[in-house]
Amino acid sequence: AQDHVIPYEQAIQFIHPDDVDRVNQAVEQVLTGKSNGNYDQTYRTVGADDGILRWVRFYGKAYFSQTGDLYRFGGVAQDVTQQVRTQQSLTVSEARSKNLVTATPAATAILVGPDLLIQHVNAPMLAIWGRDESVLGKTLLEAMPDLEGQPCLAQLQHVFDTGQPVRHSEEVAYLMTDGRPKTVYFNHVYNPLYDQDGSIYGVINTAIDVTEQVTARQALQESEARFVNIIQQSPAATMVLRGDEFVIDQINTPMLGFFGRGKEVIGQPLLAVMPELKEQFAWQQAQ
Question: 10 Å Cβ neighbour count for 55?
């Protein structure tokens, strides 16, 4: 194939005005040998016949004689309009995703690729993790090695591999924050993310920290368990009644012996167990 020679003055007149200075500077560096004669620039052009804006990548090389004189500057021009527009769309989409994650009040993170690279994460999620923004660009396991062996990693991988969302309530995770272990409970959803071709490219993780609610309930349950134990261990006949109907909530063995009944009385109104109390003065006073 023969070389197609175009005067530089002719070629540059079709370059978009906003890119002319940048292209000229790059060409000057090539011609003075500052870039070892290599040239690679992507810029906009305006069609001479149709006026359509296109993106072109021109890459080539300048050749110099032994005395340092330029004797040839050639290369290949490639229409990369579609690639540039695709990249621009991806950039816009990524910016929107970042803004959405940042603005979401719920703890949210976007993990991409089979290695679950942390692409975006907001402040509430960082607070749950006990980490800062230095985790961006790292895999989840690199950023949080304390997750190894815990269910959430396998669940995230399952979502990425199968596209099946995962939802859990009050799931526990054991984390390390500033060198100290921390137990966290959270409600979370893992949903797959799809690209334009319908392929899964990542997972979005949304979580709500419910640690305070869970620990408060656990503390109440422990307190109730201690109370029940005290009643059961008491040598005196003891029972606990609740509500207007005096339903038997707790009762120990000595009191059951006093009634001559078994544990089936638990949950029954006192009068159903001992109807004879109805006419007694103590019962009327209790009413």
Answer: 20
Neighbours of 106 (CB within 10 A): 15
Spatial neighbors of 186 by CB under 8 A, at least 6 apart, are: 107, 128, 170, 171, 173, 207, 208, 209, 210, 211
pLDDT at residue 156, as a whole number: 95
Centre a 10 Å sphere on the Cβ of residue 153 and count the other Cβ atoms it contains.
15
As a whole number of angstroms, the distance between CA 172 and CA 187 comes to 9
Distance CA 23, CA 39 (A): 10
- Please give the pLDDT value at position 1: 43
**Within its chain, how far is the Cα of 69 from the centroid?**
58
d(CA 177, CA 175): 6
CA 7 to chain centroid, in Å, comes to: 54
Radius of gyration in angstroms for the set of CA atoms belonging to the chain, rounded to a whole number: 37
Strand partners, 42: 57
Burial of 101 (0-12, 13-18, 19+ CB in 10 A): buried
- CB count in 10 Å sphere of residue 53: 11
3-state class (DSSP) for residue 262: coil
Closest CA to 24 of 1, 43, 6: 43
- Give 113-171 pLDDT, tens digit per residue: 999 999 999 999 998 888 999 999 999 999 999 999 999 999 999 999 999 999 999 99
